[in-house]
Design a protein that fits this description.
The structure holds 2 protein chains of 2 kinds. By secondary structure, chain A is an alpha/beta fold. In chain A, 40% of the residues lie in helices and 29% in strands. Chain B contains 7 helices and 16 strands.
Amino acid sequence: MLDIKNLHVAVDGKEILKGLTLSIGAGQVHAIMGPNGSGKSTLSYVLAGRAGYEITSGSIAYNGEDLNALAPEERAAKGVFLAMQYPVEIPGVTTLTFLKTALNAQRRARGEKEVDAMTVLKTVRAKAAALKVSEEMLKRALNVGFSGGEKKRLEILQMALFEPKLAILDETDSGLDIDALKLVAEGVNALRNPERAMLVITHYQRLLDYIVPDRIHVLAGGRIVAEGGKELAHELEAKGYEHIVGKAA
Amino acid sequence: MNANAHWLDERRAEAANRFAAQGVPHRRIEDWKYSDLKTAIDGANDDATLTPAVTGPLTIEHLVIRNGAEAPDWVRLHLGALPLNAMASRSFAQAREVHAFRVGATDVADRLHLVFEGAGSAHVLIVLDDGAGLTLDETVMPAGFSNIGVEIVVGANAQLTHIRKMPRSDAVQVEEYAVSVARDGVYRAHLFNGGGKLTRAEFQIALAGENAQAHLSGVSVLGGQAHADITTHITHAVGRTTSTQLFKKIAGGKSRAVYQGRITVEQGADKSDSRQTAKALLMGERAEADLKPELEIFADDVKCAHGAAVGDLDANSLFYLRARGIPEAEARNMLVRAFLEEVVAEILDADIRATVWQAVEGALPGAMAP
């Protein structure tokens, strides 16, 4: 589903990703682990299409299509979803209105019929309960006054609502206590299915105890320096990044 | 000519002198440095009288006062009595008639519509008796050069909600409001402004009695070469008075949005509370916003907060919405509406809020066009 080949990405003229290669198939969950400054967030932003992230060489194919040729909204309509590390607060737009606008924009782009407010509300309610997203949160302005955990839960609620084909979770565990982490992980696990690929980006092994990946890639200095199964996370936790990164170098 | 009418002549002559002494304001006058009226009107000195279209309940007393006509005591007491600026003085001197309205305490919740359409000068006096309530719904559709002066007297415990809508025009329009609010009185003003060749709405508000309040809010949505200036001067003359101001501006194309807000807290006006916020979003690379909040505080124990910010749409927010599938143009629209939402939400009446949103919607495409 996702084929990244020898990807080089520069931000403000500075090269951050330096030849990253990665492939994820449908139904798989891959994790990217790496120390601060390794290029984890750059990877997530370049996949979602954020301006200012320039691909200087290499390629990203998404279901055979050049992802870089698509605007962020086109990627979303085609099933790419990025759960952001820092979801933005937008005063003046209620959460429910935002969800409805986004859902219908995606449906419109795919040539599907738009859904009315009542149907959106019912669908959202059904999915919100499991994530403990309250009715009151849905009425509030998007992410305004939400706690860190509430923001992350809302990201996962969006993932449940939009039903993406490729979900990228950028540091979804950051700022969460253990209960919130479990809740979010359960939400994510419920969305695992044979048609959906997931890329879980994290600094810590902790999240991967709850969202168990099929494959782990270690990102350092803009490249994948080690790969392995789920046991790699524990090795990293026990020995530290320096050990693995040093061995690769 | 009787003594009564002679008095009106004198007041108008005083106003004419006051205007003559200052002349048409231009950019070398500090208060007008962002709005060069003299250049904008380019020597045109339209002495036509602009007659407002008035609709309102018959219970509101409405007099049209011309020279030589009798005027009741309440008109004599108030007309021309508030300190009038140069252009308000001009409107008083030029207009051949004054429209005077009086709302009694029994007229609570009445609504008065005033529509000013076209060029010329108009002068209006609105008096709310103690305990009276009024919604003043004003629409301005100017052409050429129009100059309006409005004197508003809010009596003790009276409440005036003033809506002012001015859609985009190519006109030069200057409207000056002189307002005094007595003890426990409340003056609220909600403005929508689409701008013109040069437009300026200026409010001189005196909070003259304890617990008097003034709450101003406004949205300017400007595109093309529109220019809209909102200038306010609120004087907390006595203690325990409150003022709030919230103005937001969208400036696209080569438009220019101006906000000048001066707060004066006079000596002894302790426990006064004033807040003012002005923000502008620049949508056009050649658009300009000049936001100038000013405080003059002569009392010790006061709460005054002010802030001003000029910026572009937040790139993080825009990316977030687009990453959720919302196309760029729609996402920008959402963010602009969200930016204005807080201001329009200040309007308590849902019907009025809807009409203001309608005016905003009408003006947005012009302001969003490159």
